[in-house]
Design a protein that fits this description.
Layout lengths: L8 H4 L2 E7 L8 E7 L2 E8 L6 E6 L13 H11 L2 E6 L7 H17 L5 E6 L1 H10 L5 E7 L16 E7 L7 H10 L4 E6 L10 H17 L3 H5 L4
Parallel strand pairs: 4-5, 4-6, 6-7, 7-8, 8-9
Antiparallel strand pairs: 1-2, 2-3, 3-5
Helix pairs in contact: 2-6, 3-4
């Protein structure tokens, strides 16, 4: 009897249809709904015309589109769209389930790949920090991972993110997830990696919003432009 082959990510989480939907009140971008073999998930696309670079942004355990800041994701997405980088702000089908949320993120990566985008950067806040680490360790089409105020639960694959770049950011005044969580993830990871700790910043990073957005505005384009293709090509999807 032939040995059964393991399923690919695309088989486990297959996109069947992408349709346009209305945006949440007060938001900007293009509303999308992904119909998959595991249910539907919503997203907001900030399209940069003729772009082949892209970023995916995911939030905390409750899902949604808000993110840290507040408003950092939306502002950065608009800024990047004006600079030739597409953004996909992605909601979850099953919030607070790291495995299912990582599949959501990987489906978003597949969509961007199928629409002509090069390997992407993924950004996650809080619970989403674990999601981007789990997804980043399992996709050859991710070249950079950003974990903002990350939790350690679900982030055990931090050591397998390399050769992708990893940026860990945490506020030293975080009372929800202490900055030792970010330090622990950084210590588990291999180079290339970077840890940024902000004095006086709480979990949502509002106190350091301007510095954070300056950091992301530099780190993400630099990572997208970096040539790590040969190292990524050796990773099995």
């Amino acid at each position: 009897m032939a040995e059964e082959q393991p399923q690919s990510v695309e088989q486990i989480m297959a996109i069947r249809e992408v349709e346009n939907i209305d945006l949440p009140d007060g938001d900007i971008g293009e509303g999308l709904r992904f119909q998959t073999n595991r249910g539907s998930m919503d997203a907001i696309l900030h399209r940069a015309p003729n772009a082949d670079q892209a970023v995916i942004w995911v939030c905390g355990a409750r899902g949604g589109f808000g993110g840290p800041g507040p408003g950092t994701y939306a502002r950065m997405a608009q800024q990047f769209a004006g600079n030739g980088i597409t953004s996909l702000r992605l909601d979850y089908r099953m919030p607070n389930d790291v495995f299912e949320c990582a599949l959501d993120l990987l489906a978003g990566v597949t969509h961007l790949k199928d629409t002509g985008h090069q390997p992407v950067v993924v950004v996650g806040h809080s619970f989403g920090g674990a999601v981007v680490i789990a997804a980043g360790a399992n996709s050859s089409h991710i070249k950079g991972v950003v974990a903002l105020s990350p939790q350690t639960f679900g982030a055990g694959m931090a050591g397998k993110v390399a050769p992708r770049k990893l940026l860990v950011v945490h506020g030293k005044a975080d009372t929800r997830l202490p900055f030792s969580c970010g330090q622990q993830i950084y210590d588990m990871a291999k180079e290339p990696k970077e840890l940024v700790l902000y004095e006086g910043a709480e979990h949502r990073l509002e106190e350091c919003r301007d510095d954070l957005e300056t950091l992301l505005g530099r780190w993400i384009p630099e990572t997208l432009a970096a040539d790590i293709g040969p190292r990524l090509a050796s990773i099995q999807q």
